[in-house]
């Protein structure tokens, strides 16, 4: 049984969607980041960067336990473990990894800043609100172009979709009107219809 350390945020939901999609058995350990549980010494042994998500799989490579943090690394690990949602070789594998890295480096960190300045900052900072809202809309346009001739980000359903979807779902905090991005909007509706996505979004 995999131990999942998580909270109800986009980076956590990526992993719970994947665990649900692969029908893996897992046990959820909520880490309440609003109460600073991510700084508890036991959690820091698993996730030294004090962030969720993290997993421990007692049945890792070569039958040895493995402990992992960073959601992108966890998604690749689970895909390689199960042989699902990431091609094992060829250009198709690198296309999925490319869009996963795009999410990890852009459609995540910059949207997180948009969330902060649009919704959580204790003072209004117009420069920062404009900077991150503009960047959010630029990233949405990139995704819209990619999805304009595809049902899923890399044609087939993959870990790239699982990584991007929970971030897209916070569009209202990003200063984004999803109707301006019709291909993303249609993809989000398709994703929302998948029962395992719905279950994964509810964890913890
Ligand atoms: N690059 C990391 C980012 C993880 C991350 O930012 N997690 C946030 C919640 S979405 C967190 O745990 N924040 C607590 C903190 O920064 O103290 C990943 O993708 O796993």
Strand order in space, largest sheet:
2-1-3-4
* Largest sheet, strands/sense/barrel: 4 strands, mixed
What is the residue-averaged pLDDT?
98
Oligomer: single chain
Description:
The chain has nine helices and four strands. By secondary structure, the protein is of the alpha+beta class. It has two domains: 2-85, Glutaredoxin; 90-194, Glutathione S-transferase Yfyf (Class Pi), Chain A, domain 2 (Up-down Bundle), CATH 1.20.1050.10. A four-stranded mixed β-sheet has the order 2-1-3-4, covered by helices on one side. Helix 1 (10-21) runs parallel beside helix 3 (71-82) and helix 1 crosses helix 9. It is globular, with a radius of gyration of 17 Å. The model has no long low-confidence stretch (mean pLDDT 98). The chain binds glutathione. The site of glutathione (GSH) has 12 residues, from helix 1 and helix 3.
Structural descriptors:
204 residues, Glutathione S-transferase Yfyf (Class Pi), Chain A, domain 2, 4 strands, globular, binds glutathione
Concise summary:
The chain is α+β, with helices and mostly antiparallel strands and 204 residues long.
């Amino acid at each position: 049984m995999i131990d999942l350390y998580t909270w109800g945020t986009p980076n956590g939901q990526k992993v719970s969607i994947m665990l649900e999609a692969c029908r893996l058995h897992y046990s959820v350990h909520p880490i309440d980041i609003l109460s600073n549980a991510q700084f508890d010494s036991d959690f820091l042994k698993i996730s030294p960067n004090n962030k969720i998500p993290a997993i421990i799989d007692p049945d890792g490579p070569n039958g040895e336990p493995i402990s992992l943090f960073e959601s992108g690394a966890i998604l690749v690990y689970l895909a390689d473990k199960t042989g699902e949602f990431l091609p094992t070789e060829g250009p198709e594998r690198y296309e999925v990894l490319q869009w996963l890295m795009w999410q990890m480096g852009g459609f995540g960190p910059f949207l997180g800043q948009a969330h902060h300045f649009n919704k959580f900052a204790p003072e209004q900072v117009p420069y920062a609100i404009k900077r991150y809202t503009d960047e959010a809309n630029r990233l949405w346009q990139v995704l819209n172009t990619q999805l304009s001739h595809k049902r899923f980000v890399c044609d087939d359903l993959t870990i790239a979709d699982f990584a991007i979807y929970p971030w897209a779902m916070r569009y209202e905090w990003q200063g984004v009107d999803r109707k301006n991005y019709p291909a993303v909007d249609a993809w989000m509706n398709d994703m929302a219809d998948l029962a395992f996505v719905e279950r994964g979004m509810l964890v913890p």
